[in-house]
Specification:
The protein is α/β, with parallel strands linked by helices and 215 residues long. The protein contains 9 helices and 11 strands. Helix content is 32%, strand content 27%.
Length: 215
Amino acid sequence: MGKSIAVFGLGRFGKSIATTLYEAGADVMVVDKNPKLVEAFSENATYAINADVSNADAVKGLGIEEVDAVVVAMGSDLTASIMSVMVAKELGVPYVMAKASDERMGAILKKVGADKVLFPEEESGARTARILVSESFMDYFDIDENLCMLEMKVKPEWVGKNLMELNLRKQYKLNVVAIKNNKKKHLFVDPEKPLQKETELLIVVDKMDLKKLNS
C-alpha cells in the first residue's frame, strides 16, 4: 500500500511534489485556497480540496490525522505555513516537511514543529517527492531523461543476503555502483558479502522502475 501524503499549496513546487507522489502510487491530498488551481489539478491527486490553511479550523477539518506526512509548500505565506505546521503536528501527523523562502522563515518553521525544512533553490519538487514516498530512499539524483541515481537503505528483506542471491539487476533492473558500511563508502562491490541492516547502497536505475523498487 502506498503512503498517504497531504500537500498544502499548489504553486510550482507543490504541484511538482504532488504529481510525482501521485505517479509513484501514493494516496495524495492537495489543498489550496485558489479554487481554480484545485479544480485544474484534481485529476492528478486522490483528493483535491479548496481551503484556506491560514485558518486553524480549516486545517483541522481536512482529516489529516491519518496521513503519513504533510508537505507545506507555501514558502511565500508565512502565516499559512506556521498554522499548517502547528496544526498538523498537534493532530499527530508523524512527518511534516515545510518549504521556506529564506533562512529566517526556515528557523521559524523548525521552531513550530517542522521535521524538515525545504529550500526550493536547493531542492526540486520531484527529488523531494521521490525521497518522501519511500521508506528506503535517502537521496535522489537525475542523470538524464531515463536514468536516476539513488542512495538507499537496504530493504528489510535483503538483510543477510548477498547481491548474487538477490539478483537485483534481474528483479529491479538496477545496478549497484557502490556500497557504504559504517559510513565508509566502498566503490568495489563484493557480490558475495551479505548485506547488513545499516548498509547503504548507491544504485543506478531507470525511472520507470522506481515504483517497483519502492513496493
